[in-house]
Design a protein that fits this description.
By secondary structure, the protein is an alpha+beta fold. It has 5 helices and 28 strands. The chain has 2 domains: about 140 residues, no CATH class; about 350 residues, YVTN repeat-like/Quinoprotein amine dehydrogenase (Methylamine Dehydrogenase, Chain H). The chain has a 4-stranded antiparallel beta sheet, with no helix packed on it. The protein starts with a helix and ends with a helix.
Length: about 500
């Protein structure tokens, strides 16, 4: 036994030295989110930015619409990483934008919608391909039935197009029956999938996202007679239903945005009524649709949500509008949440009139890019997340040894905090710490355990403890193990601070 203890402390000491000489940063070394720049753009009389995507080299592609006279035209333009306009194009055959994606070869794929002219021609979806300079290489049409409405679209890595919305059927009734509708097209507008889903009288899909395994996540609303609930569906790549969930806060609740987290969780955002006004509601689900947490944001005014994304760090960025949070008129609102749903940062943009943040994306360098509109102009901004110094990669021949050593170090410190959790949690519960703090701490604790098990490829913590006493160890996922340590530390810190405050008083 003594030999095993010596061997562990030898590994621990080596890891400590490696940490010193590789300048492993303290976990507290963070700064705040920072708005790098914001710009507005005008091309016609009224302009709106609906979507944004960032190319691998940092250029920003924006898609939206602009009005010349009474008619809207599809608009697409590109800026450099500082917001300087490089080119812009409008399309005569399409009116508004639904999706845009920068492709690895430099081309750009965009989904638009053409409204039929005064009933003389049908509405159509448009799929357009541009080169890196915005030249229209090819485009295709998909005629839209009158009963179908498209509300969101995404472009997959395989250049397929997934659209969601609703299909309306009257069936002799005054109020139409609405079902969720999903359509998948290839890049040439050929149909690969078209399905409907009937949950209640009124079912509408407002948003769609793609899971890492190819599953399709749909979010929207379901209900009857103006009493609506959040609706979330998980489908396989062929549209077969895996599960469906509705979430009710006893109000009119509608989901308008959905995204997936790096660990497979699903975050859904929308609106819930607060008296005569609306608040933002964000719900985090596990991959099976079970609620991890739900949070409501907003005050006495009108607050809304259009887009949500999850950063590599795990932070959640919500984009929308508010006139209740430091807002005079309607202001664009960027809200950043931690993994447990607590507010880490919020920012309002006031251009002097009606301002909205419509879509949010993450650039390859980690910056957050937001597009929307300010009065009659398109609004574009870049936000820099807090920076954490990265551990320098060692030489290839030393990488396995160093990664294993560092992983064992962080696992050791994880267990230092983990072994205190149950006692601290019981103390906090006995002292009457508020339920939200207890829930946040428990969620962080459980997520940390899952990350550590995934990082070591083990099913339980006892197997991981044994790793310290073995010569041969599995190749670890360092970033997940370090993240597990950070989350467990955050959980302990929450409980310690909460109990100390109560004991002080």
């Amino acid at each position: 036994m003594r030999g095993k203890v010596k061997r562990f402390w030898a590994v621990f000491s080596l890891a400590l030295l490696v940490g010193i000489f590789c300048r492993v940063p303290p976990v507290e070394a963070r700064n705040d989110y920072e708005v790098l720049w914001h710009e507005t753009y005008a091309f016609g009389s009224v302009n709106g930015g609906s979507l944004v995507d960032v190319t691998p080299d940092g250029e920003t592609i924006v898609a939206g619409h602009t009005y010349f006279g009474w008619f809207s035209s599809f608009l697409i333009f590109e800026t450099d990483e500082n917001g300087t306009l490089k080119w812009n194009r409008t399309l005569a055959y399409s009116d508004v934008a639904y999706a845009v994606k920068a492709l690895p070869n430099g081309d750009i794929l965009a989904i638009g919608y053409d409204y039929g002219f005064m009933g003389l021609s049908p509405d159509s979806l448009t799929i357009s391909r541009f080169d890196s300079e915005g030249n229209d290489l090819e485009h295709y049409y998909y005629p839209m039935p009158d009963t179908n409405v498209v509300l969101d679209a995404i472009i997959t890595p395989g250049e397929e197009v997934i659209l969601v919305g609703k299909i309306q059927t009257y069936g002799g009734k005054e109020v139409p029956e609405e079902d969720v509708w999903i359509l998948k097209l290839d890049k040439n507008a050929s149909v690969k999938l078209s399905k409907t889903y009937d949950i209640s009288q009124g079912d509408v899909a407002h948003a769609v996202a793609l899971a890492s395994n190819g599953d399709i996540i749909v979010a929207g609303e379901s209900g009857n007679d103006y009493i609506m609930d959040f609706l979330v569906l998980r489908l396989d790549e062929n549209g077969n239903l895996k599960w469906q969930k509705t979430f009710d806060k006893d109000n009119e609740d509608i989901a308008y945005a959905v995204a997936t987290a790096p660990n497979g969780d699903i975050v859904v955002a929308g609106q819930t009524t607060n008296g005569e006004e609306n608040d933002v509601l964000v719900i985090r689900l596990d991959s099976s649709g079970n609620i991890i947490w739900q949070k409501q944001f907003g005050e006495s005014g009108e607050d809304g949500i259009y887009s949500i994304t999850v950063l590599p760090s795990g932070d959640i960025v919500v984009a929308g509008y508010t006139n209740s949070v430091s807002a005079s008129d309607m202001d664009a609102w960027i809200l950043v949440l931690g993994r447990s749903g607590s507010v880490k940062w919020d920012y309002t943009y006031d251009g002097g009139s009606y301002d909205v943040a419509r879509f949010v994306d993450v650039a390859p360098n980690g910056n957050v890019v937001v597009v929307g509109w300010s009065s009659d102009n398109i609004l574009l901004m870049a936000i820099k997340p807090p920076q954490q110094e990265l551990i320098p990669l060692p030489e290839p021949q030393r990488r396995v040894t160093l990664l294993t050593t560092l992983s064992k170090l962080w696992t050791h410190w994880f267990f230092k905090y983990y072994d205190r959790f149950d006692e601290l949690y019981a103390t906090a519960l006995e002292l009457g710490v508020d339920n939200e703090t207890l829930e946040n701490a428990l969620n962080l604790h459980n997520e940390a355990i899952a990350l550590l098990q995934d990082g070591w490829g083990k099913d339980n913590l006892d197997e991981i403890r044994i790793i310290f006493w073995t010569r041969m160890t599995p190749f670890p996922k360092l970033y997940k193990i370090r993240e597990a340590y950070l989350l467990e530390k955050e959980a302990i810190t929450l409980l310690v601070n909460a109990t100390e405050r109560l004991q002080t008083f």
